[in-house]
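Reopening this one. Same input as before:
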Amino acid sequence: MIARSYLYVPGNAPDKLAKVLGRGADAVIVDLEDAVPWASKDEARATVAAWLQALGGQTEGVEIWVRVNPGPLGVEDVAAVVAPALRGVMVAKTESRADLDAIDDALGKAEAREGLDAGSVGVVPLLESASAVLEARAIAAAPRVVRLQVGEADLAADLGLGEDVDDADWAPIRSQVVLVSAAAGISAPVAPVSTDFRDLERFAASTRALARRGYVGRACIHPAQVGVVNDVFTPSEDSLARARALVEVFDQAVAEGRGVVVGPDGRMVDEAVVRRARSVIALAR
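Same output, byte for byte:
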């Protein structure tokens, strides 16, 4: 299954960590970066590491990601948080592929320590500067990278965008990241956060627009946003039935050695159409 919603939770808030797996999100992002003051970094890292170890492999079906700090501090984060419950790390302020080499090395050592399969912990680089966006294709090809994500708050500051920046202003960069991801053969990017968690109708509209643009799933900063995101990315019963029927016809044709496939609606079907149908099925719950 593909995760639809990713809920951020501060790494220095044990009370929130204790509840976060029950908030309805398909995935959580435990933040050791922006949400944690510099003076509390070591304590937060220890708190998150202990929480992950206590979970064992029991995550209630929720993916767990940890957003680590950039640079040497991030390497220390990675070394501490690898555990059976961890799906991967999000590397803040990634600037180039070289930034991920030390992360890859630290992950390899931590996987061996924990008895995990080599390469089992994924990496999501956060593109938060103009330089990072321009280096996106090289970053996407780095070891362990499963998808890209854009940190639009930092990127807006780097680009000098005004406070009234809107979806139209972001459109070229958002589309570029989708294009780079597809070219690299990695998963589609997760849509960026919205800091407005009160106007849920507007949030739903922007989420639908991002889905049309090729994003799959969205990051949330508040539990109220989770249900909206899940609704947007959950396929309807009709679309799910059509997708399953199309995949069944296609798989049967391939098994029989037929090169020409006609779908249930009478139209010709190729691998690209079926790939989209499989993605719809993967979002179903």
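So the earlier flakiness isn't reproducible anymore. For the record, The radius of gyration is 20 Å.
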